[in-house]
Amino acid sequence: MTFRSFVEHYEEDRRSRIKDSTWESKEHIIRTKLLPYFGKLKMSSITPQQIVRWQNELINYRDKDASGQTHPQRFNILLIVLTEGKSYCPLFSRNLLIFLAPQVGWS
Fold it and tell me: In whole angstroms, how far apart are CA 74 and each of 50, 90, 91, 106?
């Protein structure tokens, strides 16, 4: 399953559970920052190295309207989507979630 396909399932499952304004914010980040980079990748093939490259590209590219909170918000949405992905993709990398856990303070 590709990241793009998973996002479609994620939207079907989650959109009705959150406020419209919250979904619109998430959807904007997913559409403009996550899908262009991860969309064609299989969920099971996303590696920590790809996430680090994506993070570095975001850090090095500054949107003229980006605030200091924008990058962490983008990362958190990626983390939420990938964490949900493990229930849909049995081959989803456990190592990837282990890599991500310390970055958001998971034990």
Answer: 15, 25, 24, 18
Q: pTM for the full model?
A: 0.71
Largest CA distance in the chain: 39
* Phi-psi label, residue 88: left if phi above 0, alpha if psi -120 to 50, beta otherwise: alpha
Burial profile 71-90: b = 16 or more Cβ within 10 angstroms, e = fewer: beebbebbbebbbbbeeebe
Residue 106 CB: number of other CB atoms within 10 A? 11
CA gap 104, 107 in Å, rounded: 9
pLDDT per residue as tens, the chain (107 positions)? 888 998 898 888 888 888 998 888 888 888 988 899 999 998 878 888 888 888 778 777 665 555 554 666 777 777 777 766 666 555 555 556 666 666 555 44
